[in-house]
Design goal:
- By secondary structure, the chain is an alpha+beta fold.
- The chain has a single domain (12-76), classed as Erythroid Transcription Factor GATA-1, Chain A, CATH 3.30.50.
- Helices cover 36% and strands 10% of the residues.
- The protein contains 2 helices and 2 strands, in the order ββαα.
- A two-stranded antiparallel ribbon has the order 1-2.
- It is globular.
- The termini are far apart.
- Bound molecules: zinc ion.
- Zinc ion (ZN) binds at residues 2-3, 8-9, 41-42, 44-45.
Length: 83
């Protein structure tokens, strides 16, 4: 769902939950962001987000777009429901 151009392999077998790296989502001081702030990402996109040389702001933009697509999929697939 992160889909970084030129990086993404679109390989569903390598998909992991990429936690947000943003302070406002709880990341920082050795803490991981809350589990509700995740974007499904292939291995390559996840690596780029965590260790890539891309600007932080650009990583945040890619993560955010992936987060939105992930949330939509979670609702469509019934993983998340409104009670
Ligand atoms: Zn990818």
């Amino acid at each position: 769902m992160v889909q970084i151009p030129g990086i993404c392999t679109n390989n569903p077998e390598t998909v992991v939950a990429a936690h947000s790296n943003q302070l406002r989502h709880g990341k920082g001081g050795g803490l991981k962001a809350h589990d509700c702030f995740i974007a499904w990402a292939c291995y390559s996109c996840h690596s780029e987000l965590d260790q890539g040389k891309m600007r932080y702001e650009q990583k945040c933009d890619y993560w955010q777009a992936g987060f939105e697509r992930t949330m939509l999929q979670m609702f469509l697939q019934g993983i998340v429901k409104v009670s």
